[in-house]
Hints:
Strand content: 5-15%
Structural class: alpha+beta
Strand order of the largest sheet: 1-2
Distance between the termini: 30 Å
Helix content: 25-40%
Amino acid sequence: MLLVAPVLEARRVAITAEQLRTMDQDPDLRRRVNVVRSTVPAITHVDYSARLQTVDGERNPRLLGLLEAFEAQTGCPILVNTSFNVRGEPIVCSPEEAYRCFIGTEMDALVLEDCVLVKEEMPQKLDDADRKQYLSRFDLD
C-alpha cells in the first residue's frame, strides 16, 4: 500500500539557522533540498513527509523477511525503493543490464532472485578509469 505520511518526530533532525537560511534563500535548488531533515534522509521530503510503501507477510513474505533481517542487523526497518539505473541511462530491464550497471558503478552487491553477487568477490572488476568512462556516458547530478 502506498501512503504519504509525516516522518516521526523522533526521526527528525533539527535544522540550524544557517541551514534554514540556505533553504529559504539559496538559489541552488540542490543545496536547498539536500539539507538533511531526518535520520532517514533518502525518504524525507522537504516538508518532513515521506512516501511509504508497506509490506505484509501474506502478499510478500520474502520481502518482509528481508526487511526484518535488515532491521535486526541495523536497527532501521526501512529499505529505499528506487529505480535501478544511472541517471540518463534507461531503467535496467534484464540481468545483463543489471550486471553491467553493477560492475560499472560503486554498488557493493547485486541480488537477482536467489543469486547474490558481491563486488569484492568478483573475478573481474573495473578500475576507477574504466568506471569513470562507463559513467561519463550519462548526465549525472
